Amino acid sequence: MNDHRETTKYPASQEIWTEKYRPKTLSDIVGQEAITERLKAYVTTKNVPHLIFAGPPGTGKTTAALALAHEVFGEHHWSQNLNELNASDERGIGIIRGKIKDFARTAPIGATFKIIFLDEADSLTQEAQAALRRTIEKYTHICRFILSVNYSSKIIEPIQSRCAVFRFKPLTADDVKKFIRKIATKEHLEITPDGLEALIFIARGDMRRAVNMLQVGASSNTKITAELLYETSATARPEEIKKLLTTALGGNFVAARNHLYELLVTYGLSGEEIIKQIHRTIFDLTIPDDQKVQLMEKTGEIEFRLVEGSNDHIQLESLLAQFVLFGKKLQ
User: Fold this and answer.
1) Angle ∠(308,263,191) on CA atoms, nearest 5
2) Which domains are seen in the chain, by residue range?
3) Residue range 39-51, pLDDT digits in tens
4) Looking at the predicted structure, is the pLDDT value of residue 323 above 80?
5) pTM for the model
6) Per the CB 3.0–4.6 Å rule, which of 17, 149, 199, 210 could disulfide with 215?
7) Starting from the edge strand earliest in sequence, which strands make up the sheet with 143-149, in order?
8) Whether the Cβ atoms of residue 247 and residue 310 lie closer than 8 Å to each other
């Protein structure tokens, strides 16, 4: 039987591009130059303290940890002296007393210490963090810990005080564009200007999301356009959301409701995804700031209800009704 990949006219790479194009050295990491320069100092001295990498998803925290281990331990020993675990898989005290403690107590290979990289460490329970604190204290002489978190405030203070905290910022549009163009060139893709802008809008500073969306689009066509990306990423066009809001503010509830359901059917969005895009679009409306504040308050209330499990359609219609009433006051 012939392999179906032989007949496709689109890229057939089976690799996940976020891993295929993951930077291998600290110098290759984009958008976090201030952090990588500080980490390079640890490479020079071959001495690494306990670290906390804090910041939004897709900003390079895991990449920085892997690149640091690679440069500190060298090509032959880095994988043997690095243990990467995801705390969201096992949040309890068992992962500390089991996998982490077993690795921490063994001697490093070809180095004076080893590294345990604990991804999503803010998922650990308070009891697990207390046990981790004792493990850090006991095995500091042969083991360093790198904790990757979205919110450093969720890590207990005794652990924070023992670590150097590095705060990763969301990537700029220029940083994302530069990296995306590099991948597009290597994968022989044509990405249009509006496609690139759409990718920036969808990614929102998350490089992993940008690369994943590029690969999803490339699986359909070698020409990456805005229309293709919005269709494959379940994201509504900004102008469509803006039309929804302006229709409601214009006082036409029925038309706004119909447009809402058209968006839900066309893009397959959930209520939470719609509310997030409404939140972003409010800032682009040509109304005074004090009125944006009132709209934002209503949007936040509906978002809370959705998170708590309320019906998507009823809550979104309620929000549109609030916008209609607000718009009539402006007339």
Assistant:
1) 110
2) 32-167 (3.40.50.300), 172-232 (1.10.8.60), 238-330 (1.20.272.10)
3) 999 999 888 999 9
4) yes
5) 0.80
6) 17
7) 82-86, 114-119, 143-149, 51-54, 164-167
8) no
Residue with tokens 């921490």: 104
Direct distance between the N- and C-terminal alpha carbons of the chain, in angstroms, rounded to an integer: 68
Indicate the length of the chain as a whole number: 331
141-162 per-position pLDDT tens digit: 889 999 999 988 899 999 999 9
Tokens 């001697």 map to which residue? 107
Q: Which residue has the tokens 């071959």?
A: 46
115 SS3 class:
strand
How far is the C-alpha of 73 from the C-alpha of 112, rounded, in Å?
A: 10
Tens of pLDDT along 99-125?
A: 788 888 888 888 889 999 988 888 888
Cα torsion angle, 269, 274, 275, 280, sign: positive
Q: Is the pLDDT of residue 320 over 90?
A: yes
Q: How many CB atoms lie within 10 A of CB 262?
A: 13
Give CA–CA dist 221/16, Å, rounded. 17
Whole-angstrom distance, CA of residue 77 vs CA of residue 92: 30
Nearest to 203 by CA among 223, 166, 177, 168: 177
Question: Measured between alpha carbons, how far is 40 from 145 in angstroms, rounded to an integer?
Answer: 17
Angle at 137 between CA 135 and CA 141, to 5 degrees: 100
d(CA 304, CA 296): 12
Select from 162, 136, 130, 165 the least CA-distant residue to 151.
165
Burial 192-228 (b: 16+ CB within 10 A, else e): eeebbebbbbbbbbbbbbbbbbbbbbbeeeeebbbeb
Is the Cβ–Cβ distance between 236 and 263 less than 8 Å? yes
- Tell me what the mean pLDDT of segment 217-236 comes to: 86
Gap between the Cα atoms of 69 and 144, Å rounded: 11
